[in-house]
Amino acid sequence: MPQKPDTSAVTAGRDDSRSLAPALWPSTVWETANMDDATARATGMRSETFYSRYANPTVTQFERAIATLEQAESALAFSSGMGAISSVVLALCSKGSHVVAQNNLYGATLSFLQGPCARFGIETTFVDPSVPGAFEAAVIPGRTALVVAETPSNPRLGITDLAELGRIKGPFSVVDSTLATPLGQRPLDFGVDLVLHSATKGLGGHNDALLGVVAGERDLIDAVWGYAVMHGAIASPHDALNGLRGIKTLAVRLNHQNVSTLRIARRLESHAAVERVWHPFLDSHPQTGLARGQMRLGGTMLSVELKGGIDACRKFLSALSLARVATSFGGPETLVCHPATSTHVGLSVEALAAMGVTDSLVRFSVGLEDPEDLCAEIEVALS
Ligand SMILES: Cc1ncc(COP(=O)(O)O)c(C=O)c1O
Q1: In terms of CB atoms within 10 Å, which of 152, 166, 199, 368 comes out highest?
Q2: Ligand 1, atom 8: nearest CA belongs to which residue?
């Protein structure tokens, strides 16, 4: 019977072993029956019991679960979100290829495209994703191999129009959907070719798994695998196990966190020490109509511009204790960071300006605490 997404999160990736908890297969290598069997496994697609850089049963179970949630034919896991992003770009591009990417991507993705990719002869045109038609206008027919987007964007929560990406003909499109998770939005439904996640964040959900994953049509994922098995940024079975555990509680965590995030965001909007609040489902967000049209949930991240610049941010962060000062997001604890001096440090002034990362910007990843406790602490810290 068809299942609603929250139910799929509980059942996704189940195998027929009758064990309700997934099995951990730590082995890096499996015996082969004879030389012919070894050849078959060495040359087969994603042979599951050969050598764990090719595939591993626990990792495969995590990949199946993601494919179910994204309603994709196939998925491929990596040792981190950056492992997924770099492998997809290097699998699908060659020297001389052209990439179109939005100018407010996660900092390391931006640095990867501007640094190593440029060095290897892969040229990127960066576009403002809030300008209708900007991606398509930058595509060079016959040369653009890939269109790279991220929505919502980290940390300013800009929204990229998924339907517009899905309509682009020629290059493959890939969407970093980390902030939304598969329960928050499904880019493949809009015609996008590949969706990827840093599963280190909400999917894993407990700050104990460094993990990435990409999902899409089987042929395309197989092509990425053909490169990834040499690149070697392969997910560990231990992390995949933690990823599977995270997925089972994803719905209940997200539902709680999304309600809390919106409540805190609305409370902050009316605070005298706050200049501006950013969250996709706030009425004041300039793209909230687009966000509501393509997302089931608005997400667990919010950003605020504080009055008083970097000094105010410094004082605010040092006055918090229930909310922890840390850079990641999507876990049980509420985390707060100052992107300009942490996650986005080292980016050029122009890049920071393009993505709206100012000295006054503070990012919140709202966790599982009671939102009233968080609001109380935040109000004291702001005062
Ligand atoms: C939107 C986004 N994509 C990708 C990544 C990279 O993920 P990882 O740290 O798992 O490599 C991050 C990390 O913060 C991120 O925020």
Answers
A1: 199
A2: 81
> What's the gap in Å between 228 CA and the centre of ligand 1?
18
- Ligand 1 centre to CA of 210 (Å) is 10
In the predicted model, is pLDDT for residue 355 greater than 90? no
Number of Cβ atoms within 10 Å of the Cβ of 44: 12
Q: How far is residue 124's CA from residue 113's CA, in Å, rounded to a whole number?
A: 7
Q: By the 8 A CB rule, do 221 and 214 touch?
A: yes
Question: Mean pLDDT across the chain, nearest whole number?
Answer: 96
Q: What is the pLDDT of residue 270?
A: 94
Per annotation, catalytic residue among 156, 161, 176, 186: 176
Q: What is the pLDDT of residues 141-195, one digit of tens each?
A: 999 999 999 999 999 999 999 999 999 999 999 999 999 999 999 999 999 999 9
**Catalytic, out of 201, 248, 253, 363:** 201
Residue 353: CB partners within 8 Å, gap ≥ 6? Answer: none
State the distance from the centre of ligand 1 to the C-alpha of 178, rounded, in angstroms.
Answer: 7
Structural domains of the chain, with CATH: 5-248 (3.40.640.10), 251-382 (3.90.1150.10)
With a Cβ cut-off of 6 Å, ligand 1 is lined by 80-82, 106, 108, 150, 154, 176, 178-179, 198, 200, 210, 212
Residue 53 annotated in active site? yes
SS (H, E, C) 209-234: CCCEEEEECHHHHHHHHHHHHHHCCE
Atom of ligand 1 at shortest distance to CA of 82?
Answer: 11
Kindly tell me if the per-residue pLDDT of 243 is higher than 90: yes
Count of CB atoms situated within 10 Å of the CB of 376: 12
Q: Is 201 a residue of the active site?
A: yes
184 Cβ contact list (under 8 Å, min separation 6)? 177, 254, 295, 296, 297, 298, 299
Average pLDDT over residues 118-139: 97
